[in-house]
Specification:
Largest sheet: 9 strands, mixed
Strand order of the largest sheet: 7-6-8-9-10-14-15-16-17
Distance between the termini: 175 Å
Protein name: Glutamate receptor
Family: Belongs to the glutamate-gated ion channel (TC 1.A.10.1) family.
Structural class: alpha/beta
Subunit structure: May form heteromers.
Membrane topology: Multi-pass membrane protein
Keywords: Disulfide bond, Glycoprotein, Ion channel, Ion transport, Ligand-gated ion channel, Membrane, Receptor, Signal, Transmembrane, Transmembrane helix, Transport
Radius of gyration: 51 Å
Mean pLDDT: 78
């Protein structure tokens, strides 16, 4: 019993000793202390929030950890000064020999401190957000907050969501303000939005300077402003923006994450009076039970630490500080042992500076390896992950400032973009469009989405450039009004532009400016001059006959086309061939005539071969048989063949051949009919390659890019001629290539349609040769007017205005029948059209001929089986083929012989006594008639007896 009590007593003493070690109450060597430096601007609310969070983080770690390691914080105040921050870092590294430093919080202060960390190999965990501080260039730098560059894609997504094409960036003239500029510009360019102007405001700028800058911005056309300022400077900016009338309807303001996250530190009265309707983004922090409980603890501790301060809200920077210190403590616990090595002292030399005397940390590199890639899945700020020394982005929350605070209207993640809601794990549940993003109250208490662009309040009008060029006045004609010292422009293009302006949802006053083309023959082309004037922003838009091309879109932005597209050619029409003596030959091409004639002869030969031995009509003298071959096949052309056929093979061949002849004759008739009615609209040249082969001259419009197209089509430069008016086109075409003119004019379709409306009876348009987008209005790249003008172009086109305008300037197109060469009938039928028919006819005739010869050779196989020479065998076969085939003895044949004997008796009787013929029985006469043969025959019914009777009478 005594032994048991003694054992329990020893166990209790051992447990209490171990517990004291855990709590750090024992000063023995088992407790390992790790010094950590903290550098903050204690004059700021953010620093005080972060300091309180750091204290709670260390208390929570020591309470939960059983390790003997204790982290001892050493706080130093940088007093908002870069030199003070550097001095504090040197003190902590040299005198305290801290193993890590948390801070400073300002980017300008951090820049020098992380250089010290690299030198002494001590990790610097800083919440600085400037993208100019990179972890790649500073290996001992670990960013404990999101860089400002991580929000740029979220801002670009908001801009894209409302289809704003230009924005103005207002940033602070500091390392904090300038670091975001290249990243935000790139993110906006990816969605096709330009930063039209960048306003840089100094932190020391007074209110008058800020107001002058805002008035300057108000004279511009862009109405979307992205503000990247710290809270103090931003509050002054919005007060002056309200004074300048820039917080009214039509304006859009977006603030970055720092200002949005620290909005509660800005004067509430200023927010309520000057920031209503502003959009903002900030890192999303999930509201968990742990965060709710921690917030209550933090408020109590904050009041203890700073009892004289007004209550402030817990900010995301404080949560990042809590998670960052917790991650540092876990890293120290992972690499720490029974003792923490101190700094390795520098070589002892005289006159050492403070920097030279710092030495290097032996633990810093181990801590760095643990901190560079660490994850806190249960962090207060959410999923706290550091990868390669960089805090990974979390979802961003999109808010709308209404009243004294902000209201959530959506979320953004890099994977899913803008979304309506988020799950607890940060994944989206539903995507949004403009109407589903949440009810937004815009500046001026408006619910209408700002267009992002307005006519400037300075009274500046849209500068519209109109070109002067000779010819084609129907599209654009410019005159100078000497009395009013102004420009007067008429034509289809300017009328259409006036109509488009009326369809815009806002008033756009404009003024016409004359554009004079250079007279130098070496000057660039007409359209290239226009593109240069627009891209240099000398004009806001060019209105004229400007063709839309991909190469030009690199310098200007075009609206939707206002005319039809494409490059075609016009050529003279052929003379009226209806008076041509040989027009009946033109329905069929030469190769089709030859093939048809050859097949007539071939089919006639096949029929003769098949019928020669069994049909007396295909026998007789050689000249008769040759004539029969040609006669029979050609007589089928008009279905006038009278010869009967007896062979089934012959019938099979003729069935197919008659069908071929039927198709040929029908097609010939239709083609000839068409030629006799519309032949006058046939072009002289249907293929542009014929122009190159024949060496024809080709005309084009002077100054047009068509010259480049022709050269690319391998046209000889010496064969190209330029013209400026429709009259010059007509004169060149009428004279032709041989008389100093051209064989064809190649130009853009709108010009050719204009030409054909005047001269459609003599000229015709052939097939399209080059695809273009038509005429359009040219604006400078990035002009916010382009989408609205394009929509207005669609409305005008749908309203039918273009048809009325073309009739006004071009005339009535119905007076010109079939002006488009694509509607012209074929010049003649080709062999390719009937290849299938001839193939079928040839195959049927050839197969029938093959079958006949196989049967014939089989029947005369005894000849082939003899020992005679091949020559004798062929001779014998030919002799047998030329002999008439013997008919087998049959009842019908005997009947035929009897009838023949009766006929001979009748012929003799009639010769001796003609009077006896009337007394012959009618039945006998009927039996004398030859039985009808099966086959193709057009002969009428009758008795062959009448012919010999007539001959007998004639002999008598």
């Amino acid at each position: 019993m005594t032994l048991i009590l003694l054992t329990q007593f020893v166990s209790i003493i051992s447990f209490c000793h171990y517990a004291r070690q855990i709590r750090g109450e024992d000063n023995s060597t088992n407790v390992v202390k790790v010094d950590v430096g903290i550098i903050l601007d204690m004059d700021t609310d953010v620093a005080k929030v972060m300091h309180t969070c750091i204290i709670l983080a260390l208390e929570d770690y020591h309470a939960a950890s059983r390790s003997a390691i204790r982290i001892v914080p050493h706080l130093r105040d940088s007093k908002k000064d870069d030199v003070e921050a550097a001095s504090a870092a040197i003190y902590l590294l040299k005198d305290v020999q801290v193993q890590a430093i948390f801070g400073p919080q300002m980017s300008s202060q951090t820049d020098f401190v992380i250089d010290l960390g690299n030198r002494v190999k001590v990790p610097i965990i800083s919440p600085a957000t400037s993208p100019l501080l990179t972890v790649k260039e500073h290996p001992y730098f670990i960013r404990g907050a999101l860089p400002s560059s991580s929000q740029t894609k979220a801002i670009a997504a908001i801009v894209k969501n409302f289809d704003w094409r230009e924005v103005v960036l207002i940033n602070e003239d500091s390392s904090y303000g300038t670091g975001i500029v290249p990243h935000l510009t790139d993110a906006l360019l990816e969605i096709g939005t330009l930063v039209s102007y960048r306003s840089v405001i100094s932190p020391s700028a007074n209110d008058d300077q800020i107001l002058r800058e805002l008035y300057k911005l108000n004279t511009m056309q862009t109405r979307v402003f992205i503000v990247h300022l710290q809270p103090v400077l931003a509050s002054r900016l919005f007060l002056k923006a309200k004074e300048a009338g820039m917080m009214n309807n039509g304006y859009a303001w977006i603030i970055t994450d720092l200002l949005t996250s620290l909005l509660d530190s800005v004067d509430h009265s200023m927010v309520e009076s000057s920031m209503q309707g502003v959009l903002g983004i900030k890192p999303y922090v999930p509201r968990t039970n742990e965060l709710i409980n921690f917030t209550k603890r933090w408020r109590r501790r904050f009041r203890q630490e700073y009892p004289d301060m007004d209550p402030v809200e817990l900010k995301v920077f404080g949560l990042w500080a809590y998670d960052g210190i917790t991650a540092l403590a876990k890293a120290v616990e992972k690499v720490g042992g029974t003792s923490i090595p101190k700094f390795k002292k520098a070589d002892t030399r005289e006159n050492l500076t403070d920097l030279d005397a710092l030495g290097t940390s032996e633990l810093g590199s181990l801590l760095l390896d643990s901190m560079q890639n660490i994850t806190l899945k249960t962090g207060l700020s959410g999923d706290f992950r550091i990868v390669d020394g960089e805090l990974q982005p979390s979802p961003y929350q999109i808010v709308n400032i209404i009243g004294k605070a902000d209201r959530s209207i959506g979320f953004w993640t890099e994977k899913d973009g803008i979304s309506c809601k988020l799950k607890m794990n940060g994944k989206t549940t539903a995507k949004c469009n403009n109407k589903q993003l949440g009810a937004i109250i815009w500046p001026g208490e408006s619910t209408i989405v700002p267009r992002g662009w307005e006519i400037s309040t300075s009274g500046k009008k849209l500068r519209v450039g109109v070109p002067i060029k000779g010819g084609f006045d129907e599209f654009i004609k410019v005159e100078i009004d000497l009395k009013k010292q102004g420009v007067i422009a008429t034509g289809l293009s300017i009328d259409f532009f006036n109509e488009v302006i009326q369809y815009l949802p806002y008033a756009v006053p404009y003024e016409l400016f004359l554009f004079q083309l250079p007279d130098s023959p070496t000057s660039p082309d007409y359209n290239d001059h226009l593109d240069y004037k627009v891209s240099s922003k000398e004009y806001d838009v060019i209105v004229g006959d400007v063709i839309i091309l991909a190469s030009r879109s690199e310098y200007v932005n075009f609206t939707l086309p206002i005319t039809e597209s494409g490059i075609s050619a016009i050529v003279p029409v052929k003379n009226d061939d209806r008076k041509n003596t040989w027009i009946f030959l033109k329905p069929l091409k030469r190769e089709l005539w030859i093939t048809t004639g050859a097949f007539f002869v071939f089919i006639g030969f096949v029929v003769w071969v098949l019928e020669h031995r069994v049909n007396k009509e295909f026998q007789g003298p050689k000249h008769k048989q040759i004539g029969m071959i040609f006669w029979f096949s050609f007589s089928t052309l008009v279905f006038a063949h009278r010869e009967r056929v007896t062979s089934n093979l012959t019938r099979f061949v003729l069935i197919v051949w008659v069908f071929v002849v039927l198709v040929l004759t029908s097609s010939y008739t239709a083609s000839l009919t068409s030629m006799l009615t519309v032949q006058q609209f046939q072009p002289t040249i249907s293929d542009l390659n014929d122009l190159i082969k024949n060496g024809e001259y080709v005309g084009y419009q002077k100054g047009s890019f068509v010259e480049y197209v022709l050269k690319r089509m391998k046209f000889d430069s010496s064969k190209l001629r330029s013209y400026s008016t429709l009259e010059e086109y007509k004169d060149a075409l009428s004279r032709g290539s041989k008389n100093g003119g051209v064989g064809a004019i190649i130009d853009e379709k709108p010009y050719l349609n204009l030409f054909l409306n005047k001269y459609c009876r003599k000229y015709i348009m052939v097939a399209q040769t080059y695809k273009t987008a038509g005429f359009g209005f040219a604006f400078p790249r990035g002009s916010p007017l382009v989408p609205d003008v394009s929509r207005a172009v669609l409305k005008v086109m749908e309203g039918g205005y273009m048809n009325n305008g073309q009739q006004k300037y071009f005339g009535n197109e119905t007076d010109c029948p079939q002006k488009d060469g694509m509607d012209i009938t074929s010049d003649g039928l080709t062999l390719d059209t009937f290849k299938g028919l001839f193939l079928i006819a040839g195959a049927s005739a050839g197969s029938a001929l093959l079958i006949f010869f196989l049967i014939f050779l089989y029947q005369n196989r005894e000849i082939l089986a003899t020992d005679d020479s091949m020559r004798h065998k062929l001779s014998a076969i030919a002799k047998v083929f030329n002999e008439e085939k013997e008919k087998p003895n049959s009842k019908s044949e005997m009947l035929g012989e009897g009838n023949e004997s009766q006929m001979n008796i009748l012929f003799a009787a009639s010769a001796a006594s003609p009077e006896t013929l009337p007394y012959l029985p009618s039945q006998s006469l009927e039996r004398t008639a030859s039985p009808p043969y099966e086959g193709f025959s057009t002969t009428e019914g009758g008795t062959p007896v009448q012919e010999p009777i007539t001959e007998a009478n004639e002999e008598r």
